[in-house]
Write a structure and sequence with these properties.
Length: about 400
Amino acid sequence: MHIRRPALMVFLVIMAMFGLATGASAEPQDKPAVSTSGQALRAAPEIADSLGGASADLGNQLRSSDSSCYGGLEQSGTAELTVHIVDRADCVSVKSRAARPSISAGTVSVKTAPAAYSLVALEAKRDLVTKNIASLQAGGAGLSNWGVDVKTNRLHIGVAELTQAVQQRISSLLGGLADVELTQDAGWTQTADRIVDVAPWYGGDRIVGPVGPCTSGFSVFEPSNGDRTFNTTAAHCGYGTFKQGGNGYGITYVGNYTEGGPTDAQLVTTYPASAAGRVYTTSNGSSPVKGWISSQVGGNKVCSDGSYTGEHCGGTINATDQCLYFMDSRKTICKLIVVYSPGFQPIPGDSGGPVYNHGGTTADTGPNIYARGLITGSYGGNQSLWAYTPVSAWRTLLGVEILGG
């Protein structure tokens, strides 16, 4: 049975009812007091993508004008995009247009690769699976993940046990398996602890909520509510009271975590004071948030920052817009981004932590932070795969702006 929560849960709670302390233990580093009284908060600007807008512009253009020939794109080098074009006579001109230097941004180069299926056709089959997930699961299909794999040009579907009956059931739904990569996969779990902080709160704090330790994500503010500041974390960390270092931290203000929904995120009040647009990258060192990346494609570099595992860079986006079924919560979340980090995964307690890049939006090192999303969960099979909820999936839905530092 799926556990459902309402899409928007607003908690209007008097702080004293929860006994939230106003004090905190010794400060981990010198932090300036932040006063927002009478001052407009600075929103971290949106950055189209990590290649100066090239992947967003090119992808949107091909989707709009040549959807039947466009198979998707991925970052294949530091300043290189690979566009997959359906290998068909009527798509030859599209291949030429895709590689035109005028479409590239700055020094970004574009090359093409042949594809058998268009991205829109594969996405239609993905959406068909999503629409029928309840009946598939009830019929014993045991799906663990599904989404388009641009690199292989297939709809990847992972199941708990790959039997002939499961193959037939999925084949019947999709009208065959020629464009499907059907595999037996281990399941996904949600990683549901930096240690003592004081306000103004930074992202990357270890916080303890209704279901145990988690990690705070990016600080945000709500323009429609007098620029009130909030912390973020994963919604599967539970709705209710949160503490940091044993002291008062905040309570859930609003969250979005529904079966088949696009997000696993919530806002937590910044009690007793405010939040700041910074993220801990070491136990007591932090970096300012300078922007957030809206368009993310395969091959982009990413860093994760859980309060247990700390900052870990070197991962790359493996797949985007994926639906994953989490065994521990018995819930499917879609629109997730899957990352491949050789030999590394976030662990329990890292959930909700920031996912980002450093200076230059693609770098593993540098003085600044460019937000990508919040840590969601890890794969039980390949110990190098994990997933996050992208900023673009929850920023507008929760009505907030990323707080710049």
